[in-house]
Amino acid sequence: MRRRALLAWMACCGWMCAQQSAPVVLRAARMVDVAAGRTVAPAEVLVEGGRIVEAGSAVRHPAGAEVIDLGDRTLVPGLIDAHVHLFLHPGAEDLQTVEESVPERTILATLAARADLMAGFTAERDMGTEGAGSADTAVRNAIDKGLIPGPRLRISGNAIDILGGHEDAIHYNPAQHVLPNATWANNAAELVTVIRQQFKEGADFIKMYETGRDAVRDGKLTTPYQYTEAELRAAVEEAARVGKRVAVHATGEPGTLYAARAGVVSVDHANQLSEETMRLMREKGIFAVPTFAISEYFASHAATPEIGAREEKAVDMHAEEFRKQLAAGVPMAMGSDVGPFPHGTQAREFVLMVKYGMKPAEALRAGTMNGAKLLGWGDNIGQLKPGYLADVIAVEGDPLADIGALEKVTFVMKGGVVYRK
């Protein structure tokens, strides 16, 4: 009796991820067809064996099916955040890697994964452990095995940087030999070695720092590149050799152009892109991942009013560039850079993408279909479509009318298992 009660409690908490055996029918007032950008009303979704069998205004109700009536809610595909940091939390980023052990940071990462899942994010791309090596391999594997709750993950292990680069441990006493938050690679040969090691330790893709640190001079962003086009191409080719891809942290020129020419899968942050870079990204299908939410958070939590004003100016500049990128047809994927701000709150990114120029349907597509494609799961998640994995959430209101509805998640299903109800 005690064991049965314990198992029931674990299931309610989302810690029991065994695939449901009985069919389930989800019923709600509305459902979003993200591909068409329209709302279907009323809505039903039939789930069997962890996958969607039917979706529409009415579906079959097989014998013994459980009906979950969600009332005046909208069914939406599970959200996808293409830029997260599970191993970071609010506070001084650089000190976390010095003061907190990797085991402690891994435990906190499992809590972050759970928070993101409960907020409706059923898939994510972790963009570097920031000094915790390949510890994200263990988190991903534990989620996949059903040992802990969390989103489906694509992981990169430790990101890659140059000596003295954006994520190196600068401003510390050199005699203390403080380790960087990324793995050093200073030329093409070293890149190949590091990439092979990352894949050996379980990385799904490679994350590289291509620009930084940033500065604004005369109203224009300036940022040094870290790797040449030839070095980036060597990294892309090495990843492609084993069917994997490279994503870059890149805020401006010429690093963003080098990355686009080299054939990366995404340019994350993408604060300022030249006409040539935007053309290449459109033609090659390279995603921009804007990450407005982190910039807004830094502006509102700045140490001084002067720093806050500078951060706000940077956000305004990025918003102006974002509108140019939309007009140029640059593919967009939703990514929040959550970690330095609280996990589970990153649906704010959708609100900001709309505020700065996207239509709600486009923003939702960026955080579902486009995110799925970027993560390499385009045929399995991102839509409420027969044959797709049953990653389904329910929200208050209609996100096509008010994108802020995505911040009001009341139900979460991943792979046919209910985690929040």
Describe the structure.
The protein has two domains: 2-78 and 384-420, Urease, subunit C, domain 1 (Roll), CATH 2.30.40.10; 80-374, TIM Barrel, CATH 3.20.20.140. By secondary structure, it is an alpha/beta fold. Helices cover 34% and strands 21% of the residues. It has a six-stranded mixed beta sheet, with no helix packed on it. Strands 5-4-1-6 form a four-stranded mixed beta sheet, with no helix packed on it. A four-stranded parallel beta sheet has the order 13-16-17-18. The two termini are 24 Å apart. β9 (121-126), α4 and β10 form a beta-alpha-beta unit. Mean pLDDT is 94; it is low at 1-18. The protein has helices spanning 2-12, 93-99, 102-118, 135-144, 188-200, 229-241, 255-262, 275-284, 292-300, 305-327, 348-355, 360-366, 369-374; strands at residues 24-28, 30-33, 38-40, 43-48, 51-56, 66-69, 73-77, 79-84, 121-126, 152-155, 160-161, 183-184, 206-209, 215-217, 220-222, 246-250, 266-269, 287-289, 392-396, 409-414, 417-420. It has 13 helices and 21 strands.
Helical residues, percent: 25-40%
Class by SSE composition? alpha/beta
Shape: globular
**CATH level 4 superfamily of the largest domain:** Metal-dependent hydrolases
